[in-house]
Amino acid sequence: MQITSRFTIALHIFTCVEYFKDDHKVTSDFLAGSINTNPVIIRKILTQLKNADLITIARGTGGITVNRPLSEVTFYDVYQAIEPVENSALFHFHESPNPNCPVGRNIHTLLDDKLKAAQGAMEDELKKHTLEDLKNEALDLIATEK
Amino acid sequence: MQITSRFTIALHIFTCVEYFKDDHKVTSDFLAGSINTNPVIIRKILTQLKNADLITIARGTGGITVNRPLSEVTFYDVYQAIEPVENSALFHFHESPNPNCPVGRNIHTLLDDKLKAAQGAMEDELKKHTLEDLKNEALDLIATEK
DNA sequence: TTCGTTGTAACTCTTGAAATTACAGCGCTT
DNA sequence: AAGCGCTGTAATTTCAAGAGTTACAACGAA
What we know:
By secondary structure, chain A is mostly helical. Helices cover 55% and strands 4% of the residues of chain A.
């Protein structure tokens, strides 16, 4: 099982918004072209980002604005906005271990904190990167392409 | 998206094997009872653990032996044995960004190392815990239950 | 009012986990 | 050598979710 591609798509979206904002109006159709998927997929992701207050979307006209300074939006913020997982648990626990078994009725207590720590380590790593880093690295990389 | 419950089931299995080994023969049926699932599910997971050389399964008789000292088997070893994900990538990247778009053809380069670092942080955390820790904590916890 | 865009419902396709049934193969035990 | 309990595995079903697609109403600027 993997974390949805919607997360990398969201990061792709932010990169495009910043990279193209002076040259094109960045619409869901335009983004769908760069990402190579369906505009409706993009709109759904944009809606999630809007619900998390990360962006503002202009209705009618179209166009996307990032609500906060790029240096204050981390990959983790994007991840949280996108991943709809129930109580945000990365690991799926087997539902109903047997309460009559000493192991079965204690396995949750034994594992929960360790799984949470592993998830936390991943999330802390995501917090290290901001959208500003991403934008700057994108500009650098594209500049050296020529 | 979440990591399969097969991972927590595998840890549950190891705990049972150690906890019950002197009192019961630990068969897939017995384990299925503690975990509350189907014996075939258990056997499939056992096969994965066997293929990773973590355990030996006695055919005919039944019964499970851990191949290495418990202190030398980490949660990460179990995780690797269980998760069959293609090239072990935790994050699923959108398949085919547009190569004609400067962002599209560079997005992989921009994100890959960061995603890998996040995954690595999670895996390193899993490496901190061994099956021996788990067994000892289980014994402690069950002892204090009474 | 028109036009380009967003918001969203409804549907299909595909994939994968999980569960279940069925049965062949193995190796003690007697 | 025959029976028995267990493992190995194929085949099938059920269910949930991601992804893609079509269709259309709602919005806002020109």
